[in-house]
Amino acid sequence: MSSKPSIPKGTRDFLPSQVIKRKFIFNTIEIVFKTYGYLPIETPTMENLSTLTGKYGEEGDRLLFKVLNNGDFLAGADKTALENLDSNKVISSISKRGLRYDLTVPFARFVVMNQNEINLPFKRYQIQQVWRADRPQRGRYQEFYQCDVDVVGSESLMYEAELVNIYAEVFRKLGIKVRILINNRKILFGLAEAAGITDKFMEMTIAIDKLDKIGKDGVIKEMADRGISEDQATKVLSLLNIDNVIDLKSAFLGLEEGTKGIEEIQNVLDYLDGSVPELTFDISLARGLNYYTGCIFEVKVDTSSSGHPGFSMGSIGGGGRYDNLTGVFGLNGVSGVGVSFGAERIYDVMEELNLFPEDVQKDIEVLFVALDEESHRYAFKQVAILRQAGIPCDLYPEPTKMKKQMSYANARKVPFVAIIGETEREANKVSLKNMVTGEQSDVEVSSLPSYFVKK
């Protein structure tokens, strides 16, 4: 007996109704990207593991999907590592490729390899799938789409402000009330300076990044596990209570790196001049990826009384400035900044909050139904004419019982049904039924293209 079919955990099938809604999200985002002058690119599903490893921190490296070498991959395996059950060394000998973890590192590789084909500053957007071997849960999958927008080749903080505007515009168009959080990795380094733990900067940021999930006591314990004393951790947490850049500036007196981070944040705020009320400074925002060097961003659903009260979801977007990412591929001095939209979580938010437009499911304008064989062939010709005019339409495959055909029309959520029988055929008309209002009227077939263009 054949086994029951299944798909890998953390992946999903999408029904037509779901794909239509997802495309609505992608199209909304893409239109905004184009409006701001960004150009599309695509990169391979697989990258060399040497491209991916070491760019996301120790936790990110563990979540990389590795692809086995072609052929007899065990022939080239490290035999000693196999005997010692040393999985890390075994993997390096049997796997040279991996599925992309995000779109930013492949983009940095792309810039280096195509530097003679692009003009700097280069503004790109990319909407493709990524894979992470994470534990599946609500809003978190192992296969998912990212919608990225980046610019490389400029250190201007104008672009940080532009990306904030892109975030605000996209989520307004989607009807999602959000909070756009901003911080700066230099400010985080200032926290480490103030606490005397610059040598533990990465350990500190990894712990801070979990503040929302594990609370202050959990962060102190996490830091202790990473070699940071309780006094030092307490100092960091006390600074995290500061919620504005003015007060923070006085706390960072004499700390060059932290002060520079504050100046960069202020520069972005000056560009925006209060035009994005969704934007909030959050000193605890850390973003756990190693490659960020300046401003960092995260977008969360607004759960205040004026937003979407009672709704819970993790971040639905994030990004930041990365000054050194192309340098690891041999091209120094090319700064970049970008943000990503979490398409899967955005879909879940819109579905749960009922934010999709009522007509988003409409796939065709009109369904033709026929009452007899000759009318069916006549309808087939009329469908072809409408399609040539660019009007989406369809024909039920056989002239069966009217109840069956109309049930199909309802299931497809078709706004109009064109009924053709002997009477209509001989008069070169259709009986056009509005499936919303129930109204029905005769329309000349020659008038149908203009009728639906006006609609």
Describe the model:
The chain has 455 residues and is of the alpha+beta class. The protein has 2 domains: 16-44 and 103-352, Bira Bifunctional Protein, Domain 2 (BirA Bifunctional Protein, domain 2, 2-Layer Sandwich); 362-454, Anticodon-binding domain (Rossmann fold). The protein contains 18 helices and 16 strands. The strands form 3 sheets. An 8-stranded mixed beta sheet has the order 1-5-6-11-10-9-7-8. A hairpin with a 5-residue loop joins strand 15 (429-434) and strand 16. Helix 8 packs across helix 11 and helix 10 runs antiparallel to helix 11. The two termini are 53 Å apart. The relative contact order is 0.11.
The structure class reads alpha+beta
Largest sheet: 8 strands, mixed
Separate helix tally: 18
Return the average pLDDT rounded to an integer: 91
Name the quaternary structure: single chain
Distance between the termini: 53 Å
Number of domains: 2
Helix content: 40-55%
Radius of gyration from the CA trace?
Answer: 28 Å
Which percent range describes the beta-strand content? 15-25%
User: Count the strands?
Assistant: 16
CATH class of the largest domain: Alpha Beta
CATH architecture of the largest domain: 2-Layer Sandwich
- What overall form do the CA principal axes indicate? elongated
The name CATH uses for the topology of the largest domain is BirA Bifunctional Protein, domain 2
Q: Can you identify the CATH superfamily of the largest domain?
A: Bira Bifunctional Protein, Domain 2
Main sheet: strand order: 1-5-6-11-10-9-7-8
Query: Which parts are unreliable, with pLDDT below 50 for 5 consecutive residues or more?
Result: none
